Amino acid sequence: MLKIHEIREIIKLIDQSSIQEFKLETEDGKVSLKKSSGAETVVVSQAVAPAPVAPVAAAPAQAAPAAAPVAEAPKAAPAEAEVDLYRIVSPMVGTFYKSPEPGKPAYVQVGDKVTKNKVVCIVEAMKLFNEIEAEVEGEIVKVLVEDGQLVEYGQPLFLVKPE
């Protein structure tokens, strides 16, 4: 059966293409993707142990409509100001958290300096808390999402002014 990262890659490719529907059937299971008004509907079924795969694959259909307007908000800002800024994006669909646990300080705030591989936030998917790391050294210029907000695969989370 396809691994979770392979399903995410397929979703990304379908999202970037003009393909409206995609189906894949193997002896281990089925994957079906369908675009409708900019949001993908994903159905994954597997003959052996469907529980680990199905909830993650179903998440884009639930998260996409709510997250889509937020993902477009940075594009509406002046393009000149953001040209030199690096975007830290979500590698998965999930819930954004700015701190390691409630009541604790945020990993980063506007004005903080970050280094490569510094944890900047957590994205929770399937009750797994995934630490998201900075890929560049620089200064956090803007936090693009709110704590507890659903985020989409590839959605910008932070703008960083590289050093």
Describe the structure.
- Strands 4-11-9-6 form a four-stranded antiparallel β-sheet, with no helix packed on it. Strands 8-7-5-10 form a four-stranded antiparallel β-sheet.
- It is elongated.
- The longest helix is centred in the middle third of the chain and has 23 residues, at 54-76.
- It has helices spanning 4-16, 54-76, 79-82, and strands at residues 21-26, 29-36, 39-46, 86-89, 94-97, 113-114, 119-125, 128-133, 138-143, 150-151, 156-162.
- The chain folds into two domains: 4-73, no CATH class; 74-162, OB fold (Dihydrolipoamide Acetyltransferase, E2P), CATH 2.40.50.100.
- The protein is an alpha+beta fold.
Brief account:
With 163 residues, the chain is α+β, with helices and mostly antiparallel strands.
Largest sheet: 4 strands, antiparallel
* Fold-level CATH name of the largest domain: OB fold (Dihydrolipoamide Acetyltransferase, E2P)
Report the average pLDDT across residues. 76
The N- to C-terminal Cα distance equals: 42 Å
| Category by helix and strand content | alpha+beta
CATH homologous superfamily label of the largest domain:
RNA polymerase II/Efflux pump adaptor protein, barrel-sandwich hybrid domain
Spatial order of strands in the largest sheet: 4-11-9-6
What level of helicity do the residues show? Answer: 10-25%
Q: What is the CA-based Rg, rounded?
A: 17 Å
Q: What is the CATH class name of the largest domain? A: Mainly Beta
